[in-house]
Fold these 2 entries.
Entry 1:
Amino acid sequence: MIAFAAVVLLAFVLPPVAGVQISIAIAAVMQGCLAALLARVFRLAPWWMVIAFCFPIAIVVSNAVQLPSVVYLAAFLLFLVLFWSTFRTQVPFYPSNEAVWRAVTTLLPEGRQLRVIDIGSGFGGMVMYLSRTRPECEVVGIELAPLPWICSFVRGRASGSAGRFVRGDYDSVNFGDFDVVFAYLSPAAMPALWRKAHTEMCKGGLLLSYEFAIPGVEPGMVIYPSGDGPALYGWRIG
Ligand SMILES: C[S@@+](CC[C@H](N)C(=O)[O-])C[C@H]1O[C@@H](n2cnc3c(N)ncnc32)[C@H](O)[C@@H]1O
């Protein structure tokens, strides 16, 4: 808003004062630069700078190409069902990969019927991999966003996976029902996740988090599934 107001003001002031007209394209670039600068000044996460810069330019470009309005509606609906409550949870969708799933498998004690949950299971890759490689385990995925959940459900059914996919909020799950809780969330979710795991998980339970550590809580294990990529952290509940 500040960047927009500043550029509008400039567009009105410059022509009579300096005899300079600002085109819409230049105004968009100026607004993008100013908004990105403000994002930096207010110490927002780095990706906000990119979003702030690109947003006004994207509006001008999309206006110029005159796409039918149904395209915007479709894009809005797609993002809605993909990201759903991200504004509240601060955990968007981005998938982990097979190297992470393999690393998680190596941390599961052999020969025991473990109950494992992927909280925020996305498109279900982790749950299906674990149920395939460790068939003795009961593996559950819980996912809040409708699109990833329905995809994981259909993928699970189509491939005959023994993994179970539940639609819901992991906050409503009692972690005490599971021996291993796997999370790939975001830094914002970690303090509350630790409080919940610490309160509910049984002694000896294992909390795993890919990429995001828990501030102030030393992990008992740290491994790097893909060499120089992010770490997989583990905490034994004691
Ligand atoms: C970074 S993705 C990880 C997906 C998957 N676990 C993986 O490893 O590929 C995080 C997922 O958590 C979901 N999520 C965020 N908050 C949640 C909540 N409170 N309950 C259930 N799912 C949640 C998001 O919708 C998103 O799909």
Note: DSSP finds nine helices and seven strands in the chain.
Entry 2:
Amino acid sequence: MGMGKATAVAFAREGASVAVADINSEAGAETVAQIQAEGGRAIFIDADVAKAADAQHIAIEAVNAFGGIDILVNNAGIQHYGSVVETTEAEWDAVLGVNLKSIFLCSKYCIPEIQKRGGGAVINVASVQGMASQERVAPYSATKGGAISLTRNMAIDFASSNIRVNCVCPGSIDTPLLRAAAELTDDPQGTVREWEDAHVLKRIGRPEEVAQVILFLAGDRSSFITGAAYVVDGGLTIQL
Ligand SMILES: NC(=O)c1ccc[n+]([C@@H]2O[C@H](COP(=O)([O-])OP(=O)(O)OC[C@H]3O[C@@H](n4cnc5c(N)ncnc54)[C@H](O)[C@@H]3O)[C@@H](O)[C@H]2O)c1
């Protein structure tokens, strides 16, 4: 869904063969169907990216289908609201698992395949919440700060393999995740308007606008960029 779907579609339109991995098989199948309807190549892989066996399965299935892996986009994420006092251990582990451990696991199994191809790119989806924070998003903020740090580490570790590793830090983007977060408030429409106002561009972003930056970071036009955190936030974080 959301940015993952927009990214998969954008890559397919550029001619990439896309392995769409998601825990929600209905949403994944829909994305694959859209790509195929446009004449693109895509497969769906049913996977919980927080589990090692599933992450390994993603690498194996992608190689079986397409003969190798050139680009990995670590995008899956879940939100949970709570301070460290309010958050249960299970909630902490769930958010850490999907948002951060998944980057470790999917990279662990896909990077060796990218190395076999002589190089490629990894793009992690972090958030502006890895750079600044707000009330009651303790585990989410921790994962996004972690994603930015892990991006830098991976960029250093795999530069000699000709693999560039970058991350994007979106502001508020109009996806099912954002709409679900707004629904948790008393006035969902008013909340979205507040979020729009907080951005210098006075709107929230579209998933396609983040997908275009991920596409840029995956291709040769960004050949001298690695370890970077690209803020895609309509100016959300630039004003005091
Ligand atoms: N929407 C925003 O405003 C915003 C802002 C900054 C960063 N982000 C980040 O962008 C990424 C995408 O978010 P989105 O807004 O498109 O969310 P979304 O909820 O619309 O889509 C997330 C996708 O991840 C999948 N997913 C969830 N748990 C999974 C798991 N365990 N295994 C495999 N797939 C799983 C979902 O099924 C869904 O298809 C996330 O990492 C999120 O934290 C979102």
Note: The first strand starts at residue 17 and ends at 22.
